[in-house]
Every structure is written in C-alpha cells, then in structure tokens.
Write a structure and sequence with these properties.
α1 packs antiparallel against α11, α5 runs parallel beside α6 and α13 runs antiparallel to α14. By secondary structure, the chain is α/β, with parallel strands linked by helices. It has 14 helices and 9 strands. The protein is globular, with a radius of gyration of 20 Å. The structure holds flavin mononucleotide. Flavin mononucleotide binds next to α9.
C-alpha cells in the first residue's frame, strides 16, 4: 500500500545560501527533497541578466536533482522575458516571487510590493500566462503591510492555471520577526484553489508535528533555514532512519569539503572564500555541540589556514560529543 503520510518537502530559495553549489552538494549528501527552488532571477536595468544568476540556473550546473527556478517580475514584459528564457533553458516549472520583503525590491513594485495591488497582479497574469509554455507556481507572503492583502490576492490567483501556491504567512514588514500566522494559513486552506504549500519556521520535528496537526491534511511543506541548520531534516521528517553520530559527522564533513572545494575554484581570493564560508557556518554551526562558539571560531578566521584549523576543531568536537 502506498504510504500517503509521507510529507512532500521543498527546499526554499535563500539568496547567498542555496546557490547551485549548495543545492547540488545537499542533494548528493542528504537528499529527501522533492524540489529545490533557486533564489530569484531578475532583469537588470539595462535589460540583461546577471552572470551569477545565469550560472545559478544553467542546466549544466543543476543536473541530478529537481530544480524550480524562481524569478522576480513587476510587469508582464519582465515576466515573459524571464519565463521564456527559463523554459528555453529546459525548465518546465517556474516560480514567481511575490514574497521578497526588502524595501529596495518592494519599493519597485516587485516581490511583496505587488501584494497590495491585486489588479496589477491580474494584469500581469492576463498578459503573461498565454505567452508562457511552462507551468507557473507562486510564492508569497501574507501581505506587504497587512495580512488582509493576501485575501484579496488569492481570488485573482484562483482564476489562473497556477500549479502551486506557497505561502509564508508573515507580512513583509515583519521580515522574520514574530511568528508565522497559522490562523491565517488555516483560513487560506479553505480559499486557495491550486495545491497549497506551507512555509515558515519549521526548524525541528516538533515544529513540523505541530504544523501538521493544525493543517491536516496538508502534505507539502517548504523549508529554508531549518534545512540550512540541519541538512538531515527532510529525511528526519519523512521518518527515515538516520545514520549514527560518527557516520553523520562523516557526511557533514564530506558535504562541507565539497562546498569548500567548489567555492575555492569559483571565488577569487581567500577573503571572498572565507566570507562565503562564514555565511555557510551561520546556519551549519547549529548541528555542532556549541553552535555559537563553533560559528565564532570560523568567523574569527583571518586566512584559509586559520579557517581550516577552526573547522577541524569544530568537527573534532562534534565527534567527541556525548
Ligand atoms: C537570507 C535569506 C534569503 C532569502 N532569499 C529568498 C529568495 O531569493 N526568494 C524567496 O522566495 N525567498 C527568499 N527567502 C525566504 C525563504 O525562502 C523563506 O520563505 C523564509 O526563510 C521562511 O522559511 P523558513 O522559516 O523555512 O526559513 C530568503 C530568506 C532569507 C533568510
């Protein structure tokens, strides 16, 4: 009999963390993810795409795991341009970002900046959907300034062949403060026509069980920071048997090594490399015996040999943990 209780788990897009290097290494060493989402692509002022964005979604860099590229567009011409580019690159599903909360984005009427304007969203979809071959999913917040906004946006999205709607039920103004609004999400379950996905603050098995209990029979979940902190989390939530402590440490070490080696080839200079790896440890240190101290040790590294010493010490402590 099919196991219907197994959750479907998506890895959320996080700029500067879940790039192609990270996603590939995660898929290889941990798995348990049904779809990875790329951080958003964007059309620049001069109409071009950033080299780093092109590289991040180039098929040759993203093979071996299911990827949904995300894009940001505040008008139909950007929407169509990006969607066409991504479909021509070989993707069948694309994700439209209606959730980015940062003012430099929202002030330009993109990301969560579109949420107070359901008519504009309708206009963009009206003009874009007939021009795009791939399927479109949408990731959104509860609103820019008020959670009432999503209630006006949902009826618009319901009118289009949107393949999935992923909701992080915080308003943009909150950024990451406060808690996700579970009551609002529950309300949306009765209003949203396409398949609905929950996103927000799932860090542990307990967080997941609470949300699962509240939103039953919801079966699809998107997780970001929880997976960066514990890359085994998806497998844990699926009820898979996890390796023992020493084997876990070995996998984490191999994962770290692969990422370090890839960034070493990609980035010029030790400074850039250490900045990048420090960002990685901001989350990765959570699995170590004293996360704060483990992170500090890495952050203090002034060169690569100091970094390597810090990392060795962190793994030593992980192996010796009782
Ligand atoms: C540093 C950072 C970068 C993010 N970048 C993106 C992004 O490019 N696109 C997007 O849709 N969401 C982005 N997000 C939001 C996450 O995808 C996710 O919705 C949010 O972190 C809540 O989920 P979580 O609690 O599981 O992390 C970002 C979040 C953070 C903290």
């Amino acid at each position: 009999m099919e196991n219907n209780s197994q959750p479907v788990i998506y890895f959320a897009p996080l700029q500067e963390s879940t790039d192609f290097v990270y996603r590939k290494a995660h898929a290889r060493h941990f798995g348990g993810i049904d779809k990875y989402f790329s951080p958003y692509l964007l059309v620049q002022k001069d109409g071009s795409l950033k080299k780093s964005h092109l590289r991040d979604t180039a098929m040759e860099n993203c093979s071996g795991y299911p990827l949904v590229p995300q894009f940001m567009a505040g008008n139909s011409s950007d929407f169509i341009f990006l969607a066409k580019y991504l479909v021509e690159s070989g993707y069948q599903e694309l994700n439209w970002n209606l959730g980015c909360p940062y003012p430099m984005v929202t002030n330009k009427g993109m990301g969560a900046g579109l949420l107070p304007s359901p008519d504009k969203i309708r206009e963009i979809l009206d003009q874009s959907i007939p021009m795009v071959k791939g399927s479109i999913s949408v990731k959104l917040r509860a609103g820019l300034a008020s959670a009432a906004e999503v209630l006006e946006v949902v009826p618009v999205l319901n009118d289009y062949p949107i393949s999935e709607i992923i909701v992080h039920p915080r308003i943009a103004r909150q950024l990451y403060s406060g808690t996700p609004d579970h009551d609002l999400f529950k309300q949306l379950q009765g209003l949203v026509r396409p398949p609905l996905v929950y996103n927000g603050d799932l860090f542990t098995r307990e967080d997941f069980e609470i949300a699962k209990g509240k939103f039953d029979p919801l079966h699809t979940w998107m997780i970001g920071r929880g997976l960066l902190r514990n890359p085994f989390l998806a497998r844990e939530l699926r009820g898979e048997q996890l390796p023992g402590r020493m084997e876990k440490a070995r996998i984490l070490e191999d994962f770290h090594q692969e990422i370090l080696e890839n960034y070493t080839t990609m980035l010029s200079g030790q400074g850039h490399l250490i900045t990048r790896m420090t960002k990685f440890w901001e989350y990765f240190s959570f699995l170590f015996p004293n996360p704060h101290k483990s992170f500090k040790r890495v952050k203090k590294s002034v060169n690569l040999s100091k970094y390597e010493i810090a990392v060795r010490e962190n793994f030593l402590q992980l192996r010796n943990e009782e």
